[in-house]
Each structure stands twice: as structure tokens, then as C-alpha cells.
Amino acid sequence: MPRDRIDSFLDRHEPEMVQTLSRLVAIPTVNPPGQSYKPCVDNLCGLLKEWRIAHCVIAVSEGTYPRFCILGSVGEGRDGLHFHGHYDVVPAYSAAQFDPKVRNSRLYGRGSSDMKSGLVAILYALKYFQESCTKLAGRISFSFVPDEETGSHSGAGYLARTGLFPRPSFGMLMPEPTSGAVWYASKGALTIRVTVRGKPAHVALAHQGENAFEAMTDIAGSLRVLKETVGRRETTLPVDPPGAKRSVLVIGGESGSGVSFNIVPDTAFFTVDRRFNPEEKLADARKELMQVFDAARSRGIDVETDVIQESESSLTDPKSPLAVALGKTITGVKGEPPPFELCPGTLEIRFFNSQGIPALAYGPGLLEVSHGQEEYVRIPDMLDCTNVYIGTALRLLS
Predict the structure, then answer these.
(1) How far is residue 129 from each of residues 122, 256, 381, measured CA to CA in Å?
(2) Domain ranges of the chain
(3) How far is residue 11's CA from residue 19's CA, in Å, rounded to a whole number?
(4) Which of 10, 14, 174, 257 has the most neighbouring CB atoms within 10 Å?
(5) Calpha distance 353→347 (Å, rounded)
(6) CA separation (Å) from 213 to 36, 157, 218, 273, 291?
(7) CATH of domain 3-186+313-397
(8) pTM for the full predicted model
(9) CB-CB contact of 398 with 136 (8 Å)
(10) d(CA 38, CA 101)
(11) What are the DSSP calls for 236-286, one per residue?
């Protein structure tokens, strides 16, 4: 392993990497709704073009907030290793989060942890191989996508549905903020928007109306009973924090009803977000929820359900060649072996696992600060992650 060469590369490019991350963080790729995607894609493609890295842009949708995916590769031959990441970020607490600041070897800003620092690590790993002209036994391919934060439909989901994802022989790595762990498994997801319909009436004639809000709370009460059952289920896989071993049912992440305080509400809505462990199946999670809604209908409640997202849980063999190579490389860079854990949430590794392709997450960010008011990434962690990506590719493809 050419450690000196990699270290020299990172030393030379550290200021440039920090500047690249700052520029990406300053672009408010907020999702929803999906704004500023085009400037971000233009920025990423500008670097790839400058570095003469082959790539193409796929327009997934147009309109007020168009979506774009970037696909590319370095090297020749069969696809051996794939890097995958998303460029959208969750909404910020203030506009100041898009004014990146560097303090105490940390870069603060929305998306710095999840996951624009990870994109920078991928970019400069690609740059290393392009600059060094290292002969590889296969290609390193990559994809940068939107909409991971809202279910992946127009990003990774689109590439999977249309068969545009490569089939790398060793698998895929993605830079989610894993806090130093390797995530080799993820929970499944089922998110449903529930709409309840009633009959409006003036408050003085409330007896003539049908209160959709009250019917909604009736359904929510039944879901709270199911929540207790779900919460007693625990995975056998290692996960941090330990409380994340439990299956999850969140009621009312979004909710609302009516049009005015003096009108009986004729509509009400809320969301239900079910996250289930690898030991459970999507079909069973769906069945449990639908039984609650069917029971409400049998009581005369007019209820509609719309699925926002659904995905099976994912699991990659921690003894696969990709996992072994990644673990050894992290040990060499960080000085100790990483824990292999279940991700407390859902991951886009599922799109690769569903095709039988090993997929792992390891990134420079910290899960505990991602999406927060003081989101940041430690710059040394970003450099180490780049080192790990380069080293893992060398182990697999030299």
C-alpha cells in the first residue's frame, strides 16, 4: 500500500478539499422541495470535467425543482467498486447554516456531515487515481443523486428502476455519517400519509357535522396500542445507541386538520412512519398498519392511505471481500478496527442489496450532529475517509 504517496496527496490537497466542501455547503440543496440542485450539479461536474473524469448527467425530472443524477467512472474494464452519495440536505434552522465556517478543525454548515464531506472524500479519491495513473484491475464507478432525504424516488430509486446502476463485482461504498462505524445493515421503512374525511358544519350547528379530527385521534389511539407492540421487538444485530435496537413507529410526524377554528373540520391528516429491523418483513409491517385502518373503516370512519415510501431492510455479509478490505483499511488508517453495526435508520444500500450486490456505509460525518442546528464535520475525519476510500480500492483492485 503506497501510504507515503497517499499521505502526500492528502497533505497537498487539504486546503483545496476544505474549499470544495465550503462551496458545496454554501449551495442550499434543501429537500424538500429540491431547490438549488442545478447549481450543485454544475459545481460537481465542473470539478469532474477539470480533472478529466468521465461522467454524464441524467435529468430525472424538470419543472420548478428539476432533479439530476451524475454517473461516471475512473479506470477501465469491468466495474469493480462503486461509490454512491447524495447531494440533497434537510431544511436548515437558519440561512446562516449555508454560510460555512471553519473553527477548531471543524467545518460547520448544513450538509457538512450528511453528506457533502463524504462527497468530497469520494471526489478526491477519484482524483487520486486519475492523477496517479494507478493501474487498476477494474473500474471505479460512482453516482451522485438527489432526494435521499425524502425517499429516493427521483434519485437512487430512479437509477435502480431503470437499470442504470452498475453491477460492481466487489460492491458499493457510500459516505453516510456513520460516526466511525461501518453500517452493514439498515432498517426497512414504510411511511404512510393518512387522510380522514368528515363533514363540515358551522360551529353553531356542530351537531350537523362529522369531525374528521376526532376520527383521526381515534385511529391514532389504535396506532399507539400497535406502537407498544412494535417497540418490544429488538434486533439481534449490534447497533449504537442500544435503544435503537427496537423497531419504531412514529405517529404524527406531520399532521393537520380543518380550515378555521369555528368550522367542524371535514378533513384531517397525519403521517405514520414505521422503521423495522432486518428480522422483520415489509409485508408484515404493512399488514399490521392496514389492519388498523381497516378496523377504523369498519367503525364508519372514512379514511384513505397513501404510501410515501416503502423499502425492505438491508443486510450485507460482514465477511464479504468488500467488508474485509474496508475493515483492514480503516484499521490501518485509524489504528483500530471499526465496529460493524446496523444503521438506526434506512440507507440507500438497499438498492444494491436487492440486486445481490454487497453495499456498506462509512463516512466522515457524525450521526449525532447531522440534521442539527450545529451540524459540522471534523476536517481530519474527511481526510481519513478519503484515505480509507483510496486504500480500500487499492486492496480490491490492485
Answers:
(1) 11, 52, 20
(2) 3-186+313-397, 188-311
(3) 14
(4) 174
(5) 11
(6) 37, 34, 9, 19, 20
(7) 3.40.630.10
(8) 0.92
(9) yes
(10) 23
(11) SS--SSGGGGB-EEEEEEEEEE-S-TTB--SEEEEEEEEEE-TTS-HHHHH
What ranges in the chain are assigned the alpha helix state H? 3-25, 37-50, 117-132, 156-161, 212-231, 282-298, 321-334, 350-353, 379-397
pLDDT, residue 285, reads 97
Give the CA distances from residue 344 to residues 91, 175, 254, in Å, rounded to whole numbers and listed in that order: 21, 15, 21
Closest to 213 in 3D by CA, of 196, 192, 193, 225: 196
Q: If you compute the radius of gyration of the chain from its CA atoms, what whole number of angstroms results?
A: 23
- The pLDDT value given to residue 345: 87
Residues paired with residue 348 on neighbouring β-strands, in sequence order:
none
Rounded to whole angstroms, the Cα distance separating 144 from 36 reads 15
Q: Give yes or no for a contact between 363 and 117, defined as CB atoms under 8 angstroms apart.
A: yes
Please name which of 287, 288, 271 lies closest in space to residue 230, comparing C-alpha atoms: 288
CA atoms of 352 and 79, how far apart (whole Å): 14
Helix H, strand E, coil C: the string for 344-388 is: CCCCCCHHHHCCCCCEEECCCCCCCCCCCCCCEEEHHHHHHHHHH
User: In the numeric block, which cell numbers belong to residue 79?
Assistant: 466495474
**Are the beta carbons of 350 and 382 closer than 8 angstroms?**
no
Q: Are strands 248-257 and 267-276 parallel, antiparallel or unpaired?
A: antiparallel
User: What is the domain class of 188-311 according to CATH?
Assistant: alpha beta
Residue 311 — φ and ψ, nearest 5°?
-160, 145
Distance of alpha carbon 327 from alpha carbon 345, whole angstroms = 22
Three-state DSSP at 315 gives strand
3-class DSSP assignment, residue 333 = helix
Whole-angstrom distance, CA of residue 56 vs CA of residue 59: 10
How many percent of the chain have pLDDT more than 70? Answer: 100
C-alpha angle 111/11/20, rounded to 5°? 30
Do 85 and 179 touch, CB atoms closer than 8 A? no
Q: What is the pLDDT of residues 291-313, one digit of tens each?
A: 999 999 999 999 999 999 899 99
Residue type, 207: H
Pairing of strands 79-86, 171-174: parallel
The number of angstroms, rounded, from the C-alpha of 134 to the middle of its chain's C-alpha atoms is 31
What average pLDDT score do residues 331-359 get? 95
What are the Cα distances from residue 17, in Å, to 22, 36, 104, 117?
Answer: 9, 21, 16, 9
